[in-house]
Amino acid sequence: MSASENMVNISFRASKEDKQAAEKVCKQLGLSMSTALNIFIKAVGREQRIPFDLTLDPFYAPENMAYIKKQIEDVHNGTITLEEHDLIED
User: Fold this and answer.
1) Who's near 70: CB < 8 A, 6+ residues apart?
2) What's the CA angle centered on 28, arms 23 and 33, to 5 degrees?
3) Angstrom distances, CA of residue 45 to CA of 14, 39, 48, 49, 56
4) Which InterPro entries match (predicted)?
5) To 5 degrees, how large is the angle CA 12–CA 28–CA 9?
């Protein structure tokens, strides 16, 4: 049996907003929606439970990235200055 003969199509309904939100997260994780759903299905079968949490690093959240970019712009514009501190000892 070839790989294509072993595959089936699964169809389900989701709200447009939920689908778009899931696609956005999958893209950020470097996954297609199909790959993400296959990971989920394999894990459910293997672990016999709803298995895991895939989360994004909050550092890369759009709000945090915008804050960091603004801080960098402010340093370049001279609006704020950086100060050296002694948190790390030599």
Assistant:
1) none
2) 35
3) 22, 10, 5, 8, 24
4) Arc_rbn_hlx_hlx, RelB/DinJ
5) 25
Rounded to whole angstroms, how far apart are CA atoms 15 and 2? 34
28: CB partners within 8 A, 6+ apart: 56, 60
Q: How many CB atoms lie within 10 A of CB 15?
A: 8
Going by C-alpha positions, the residue among 56, 52, 51, 53 that lies closest to residue 29 is 56
- Is the CB of residue 36 less than 8 Å from the CB of residue 26? yes
Please state the pTM of the whole predicted model.
Answer: 0.56
- Direct distance between the N- and C-terminal alpha carbons of the chain, in angstroms, rounded to an integer: 64
27-49 pLDDT, tens digit per residue, is 999 999 999 999 999 999 999 99
